[in-house]
Amino acid sequence: MIKGCTVHYLGECPAPIWRSLFHFSSQNYREMLEELKSGLTIPDLKVSEDYWLLIWDAFKYTKDIRLESELTQEYLQIFNKNPPEIVPNVLDDNVEVDKNLNILQLQTFSSAESESYVEFFNSLKNDPKPFLIQGPTTKTLAWQPLALSRLNEILVYAEKHKISFWGDNLEYIQEKIIGINDASRTADEWNILLEVLRLRFEENLFFEYGLEYALKEGVSPKEFYPPKNSEREIYFPVKKHKSSKDLFSDGVFVLNNQTNFDSFLLRLKTELDTNSVAIIDVGALSLLSLNAALELSHIYRSNMQKKILFVNALPLVRMMLTAVGFISTNFKK
Fold it and tell me: Which of 38, 64, 142, 318 is most buried, by the most CB atoms less than 10 A from its CB?
């Protein structure tokens, strides 16, 4: 148990924990990891193995080799042993991934890397279909002008030809460009920044920087139109089920990232009406929003004479459930 979280509500936990859980709920994994790292400045958290489990779990969602190496050395010094192995989150056995997705991968923005941008652009012109931009996993960026020019060329082409696109992990790009002095920011950087802000639903910042650029260049401000996530799900369904799996199996609720939570909550209420214990296997659940956790907590508090038992909970999922009121006796490995 993490010291400071003996009363199981978000407000009773140290700030880095509940702030990281908000990022976890919103799937802002880079910010989540940074927030957890900041918690190591708190002495009680720094020597808590349970807290470190949250950090190692966070590395399953976002890769940062340099930070992982740095924290591994710190962990060794504190506990005199190696940290647990970080096994990336994997798909369920009954899930099939579409390997023919149109994805533009960005990492360092080096001139050499940008050769792949050229290949992508040529492919896009031959087959103009929606695409997904996956941003860098490290703050260390070469940031070479040729790479920026080639990326911006793709964005301008997509906008001109009304090709939909979306983006993941774009926060390091946003941070990099905003950190550049306004007077030194190139036209490529300005346009890339505005597209990143649009893709990240940063409407206020989009208008702020869009107006600044428009005044600087004497042009009309760009219009903000958020990416259509409903359309994204058509082209980029993250997981496709080969076969449906019954939610309730052998007396146990089995949850995963595709579970319809509304249906599950209805089934859970029915189960608690007729039985004293509901067992929920969350081993395949690596995504859990705060709202979903609160809904579970509400059912739990409405049935205090009954018991809800979670099995196989990953550290971050367990912490989210703990933060909304579940206690140690609600969990079993």
Answer: 318
